[in-house]
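ingest -> fold -> write
write: protein_1
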Amino acid sequence: MNTVRRRVAVLLVALLGAGGSLVSTGPAAAAPAPGTVIFSAPAALPSELAGLATAKWIQYVSTDVNGGTIPATGLVITPKKGKNNKTVAWGHGSTGLADQCAPSISQAVFWPEARAAIAGLLQRGWTVAAPDYPGLGTPQPHPYFVGKSEARAVIDSVKAARNLDSNLSTQYVVDGHSQGGQAALFVSELAPSYDGPLVLRGVVGIAPVNHVEILAPAIPEFPNRGYLVMALAGLATVEPSVSPATLLAPPARLRLPVLVTGCLNEILAAYEPLEGDNFLAGGTLPQTVVNKMARWENPAQSPPSAPILLVQGTADEAVPAFVTEMLATDKNDAYPSRLIELKEYEGEDHEGAVYASVDFVSDWIAARFR
């Protein structure tokens, strides 16, 4: 894979401008369409998946939240047996912000629960598109928790899979966990205006990030407060007025380099000891920042375009069950309850809900394809 990355780096010099966007090679050259595959190469899979499928590491064209053309990376995973012509996009949970935190190039952050979920999809014969999200493995910063950024990369990974395999149909489903569950819900809202010829049949959000206006102010009271630091860094990519260094207290500010040197577990460990005034300047998150987070990070701001399955463990401490229950039961114009199904698993935590739901989720997806 190091050889592949060096070759891609050479391509990037030709394709990328200083700001990290793809640029044309001449006055008459048009920007490549989203989903165009820039480069692909065989990729190794974790042992749990290697017997079930083959994989290609891809770099493909996507767009940022302003419509600018950017590169993205990921895997296209093809089952060895029973392959049909349907595609499921897998949205991974949080891995970090730095390039080394891209699951397609680091099995250390190809989480065990993701392997179990993907194995269940492959066993049904579905091709799996597994994007890294913008900024993970590519030059631009990662807009962590910015839903429309994640959703574009997910949709374009399905287009890229079809560009690699013309036998794949236009039908697809998105299945995601945590950050990826949030991405899946944003796909359901963005698809009508963005996915072109694709046909979205359904989305699965397992413990999806939602109701950020409730979660964000509460995070500093819990050990996993590093999630808030990552969320502030992600928000700063689309809200230049937001400065994590200003919002964090001095002890927390000194730990900011871990966002570059580490991935999720290192980030969480770095910020776990800090509490109160040692974490946030003034001890609280300003309401103006919370409002901006909700604007960019909350799903359910426009109607979904396909049925939704929400999966939730009742013992989840990262995304508490009550916020997902609120998402499922809120009766509003954006999320009519008739389109939403909630499946809860008693006693399961954030990762446990993924393991517990593999068969149920696969059955639900199969019904959507039928």
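write: protein_2
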Amino acid sequence: MAKTAPGELELVRRFVNTADIAEGTDKIGDPAALQEWLLAQELIPHGETVSAADWGRAIAFREAIRALAIANAGHQCVPVDSLRTLNDIAATVMLTVRLDKKGHPRLEPVVSGIDRALGHLLGIVLTAGVEGTWTRLKSCANDECRWVYYDRSKNRSGRWCSMEACGNPINARAYRVRRKTDGKAS
């Protein structure tokens, strides 16, 4: 179920997948867990705390990014609420262009706290959009899964986080329904 993304886009994929819909678990299910995850990813410095309001913004941001991944997969359009969330966060994170040690430009937030962490993730999304890799970050077509994966298929037609976990069972179920409907019950 890996299907990792290239470069820093992998961090965005891992962030969205902190919520495992199929398992009903959330690695960042409260402010303390979010703080620990952000520290582990070096998105906030040691000593930085995450408030309940920060946690709420991060969860809303995560689910808005998931909505973009669902739209990338062609399952539905991006909901207005998700766009509003992303635009509100974009307005507060204040991204600027910085050059890294090799002279490559990158977007970095000039704020601190949770806005810095969210800004870093949003900068990755924007950069991936410019590089053409963003549209390959998709959500599984299985509504009970919605795991975010990177579509490495040549024609960008991937639908499932994995054929074994989601694709084959859903395709088999659809086949049985078609057979039953055709009067050829198995």
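write: annotation protein_2
The domain at 9-181 is CATH 1.10.3300 (Jann2411-like fold).
The chain has one domain: 9-181.
pipeline exit 0
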